[in-house]
Pentapeptide repeat-containing protein (Nostoc flagelliforme FACHB-838), 76 residues
Amino acid sequence: MFISAMLNEEHNAWLKKGVQAWNEWKLKKSGIITDLSKANLMGADLGEANLMGADLRWANLSRPLAKVLFARGRKG
């Protein structure tokens, strides 16, 4: 059985409002699984975003991941 992932537009809109807004919203919605599958997050600064438990299948994370790794390398 194949289940296709589909981006939840409400979740994506909250992330686009910024990390602080996202984290506050996610704290209020702690019982749900956030769905960012297939989201285009290229260029987003997600270093402080709470993405714990988020569905990120097929999401474009290439740039944010590089930014986080680069920032961690510079600090330590």
User: Anything to note?
Assistant: The mean pLDDT is 80. The chain has one domain: 9-75.
